[in-house]
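Pilot study result, target chain (121 residues):
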Amino acid sequence: MYKIIPNKTSLLQFENETKNTLFLWKNRPAVDNIKTMAEQLDIYYGKNRDIFADMGGYIVIIYGETTEIEKEHEEILNRHFLKKDFYEFEDIYEHEGETVTVRLYLCSSDYSVATVSVVHG
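Predicted structure:
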């Protein structure tokens, strides 16, 4: 499963919808990083932009079983003609046996996709 996050409002709504079911929200350093990325997209590219037509990009949170996460991650990268290992940076956050991996992929000088993979134990 995955959720596309175009802005901070969408992120906060998704957090509210899944706060009791998705352990991501217990990992404060990871959540703070994701919120900062969403805020930066809003500030520099606008809160109401069309993520597929306008500049900026988006964040996608991928969660579920490991094989499902890998499949969704690959499909998202393929949509943008990106390779799995060609990310600009990677942050890994571990908390209570859970791992959150944040990777930023640059599609162009003004468009990026940040993937957030949430792996349970």
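One observation from the pilot: The CA atoms of residues 90 and 103 lie 4 Å apart. A full batch analysis is planned for the follow-on phase.
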